[in-house]
Each structure stands twice: as C-alpha cells, then as structure tokens.
Specification:
Elements (H helix, E strand, L loop, with lengths): L4 H9 L1 H21 L13 H11 L23 E4 L2 E4 L4 H5 L1 H9 L7 H28 L4 H13 L2 H6 L5 H20 L12
Antiparallel strand pairs: 1-2
Helix pairs in contact: 2-6, 2-7, 3-5, 6-7, 6-9
Length: 208
C-alpha cells in the first residue's frame, strides 16, 4: 500500500513508538542469527582482512611485511593466494574498503588483548563485525521501505528481503568486501528515497 504524505508525517511522529520497537526487534534478530550461526567462512578469502586493519593501526601502512614471521606456517604470506607480492612487499589481494572501515573495531579488539595474527582472534572479530553490519543493513532496508510503505509492510519486506535471500547467507558468514558494498549501497538508496519522497530538499551528489 502506497502511503500518502500525511500518513508519512504521522508515521514520522510515532517512529519512536511502535515502529522503533519493530525495527529493534528486526535488528536484534538479524544480529543474533548471524553472530551465533555455526557457519563461518572467515578463514577463506576474508582471512587477513583485519590484519590489514591492524597494520594500519600499528604501522600506518597497508603492507603486511611485518607479520610474515608471526603467522603460523599454514598462513604464511609468501605464496598465499590472499596476498600479492609487489615490489618486494606483501599486500592483501582483495578490496581494502572493509579493512579501512574495520580499523576502529580492530583498535578496540587490540585494546582487549586480541591480535589479528592469531586466526581465532580474527575469526571472532570478523564474526562480530559482520553481525553488526548485517543488523545495520536490515535497518537501512527497513528505512528505505518506510519511505514508500506502512510500518508493518516495511517490516515484512525488509525482513524477507534480508532473511530470504543470499544477503543473510553471505554477509552473515564472514566479513566479505560485499558487506561494506551492500551497506553503502543501502545508504545511497535510502538517501535517494528520502529525496524522492521530499524528506530532504536537495540531493547532494557528493554523498553518493
């Protein structure tokens, strides 16, 4: 059901009531499903994602040279398919956006005594971050739907779209580069939807 401007205004006034409770329920459910899932693929391609974050914190560089001797024999950088050797330096092969965004999380993890050179520490950190991002993404899906639909419909569409698609089976299993890709795409779509529904007066292309 398409919602009129008057209805949207009324919904906005009551957002911190019933609507926020539904949204919180959805976010907590998605976080719990992803965080406590027994499926974890962080030891595949995403391994070293957070090691790059740690390198940025410790060395102010994305090079992984400092960790070659600290990793176990199974994860040595030389010859590892996740790592590219360029000019005598080791670099993570996959996109770096997720590593950059994860710097604050890794900084807190380091303060708590976690070290991303230890596989179990990185897998645990990836599991937590991917669960947080999954919850944020489903919240954004809900907010996008709220621009066009009533609260109950927005709740249903957002829930089915996330839980009934490859989003949950991919984003919730590890900290893939796809996690941040989907997050920022959802932010962009929400921004455009708000502009289309006259909730913001001007569309700034630099935000996109």
């Amino acid at each position: 059901m398409i919602v009129s401007q008057q209805q949207r205004n009324e919904q906005a006034r009551t957002f911190f009531g019933k609507d926020s409770a539904l949204l919180l329920l959805l976010a907590v459910a998605v976080f719990g499903l992803t965080y406590f899932s027994t499926v974890n693929t962080a030891s595949s391609d995403p391994r070293f994602t957070l090691l790059v974050s740690q390198s940025i914190i410790e060395n102010q560089a994305i090079k992984l040279d400092h960790y070659e001797q600290l990793l176990g024999a199974h994860h040595r950088l030389n010859g590892n398919y996740r790592v590219k050797k360029i000019g005598g330096h080791y670099y993570y092969y996959y996109p770096l956006a997720t590593s950059l965004i994860s710097v604050p999380f890794v900084w807190v993890a380091n303060l708590a005594g976690r070290n991303m050179t230890i596989e179990n520490d990185e897998l645990a950190a990836q599991n937590l971050i991917s669960a947080i991002l999954s919850a944020l993404i489903v919240v954004l899906l809900y907010l996008i739907c709220r621009c066009y639909a009533e609260p109950a419909a927005a709740f249903s569409i957002a829930g089915v779209s996330f839980l009934g698609s490859s989003l949950i089976s991919t984003l919730g299993t590890a900290l893939w580069s796809t996690d941040t890709f989907v997050l920022f795409n959802a932010l962009g779509l929400w921004y455009i939807a708000r502009f289309e529904q006259d909730r913001i007066k001007q569309l700034n292309p630099y935000y996109l």
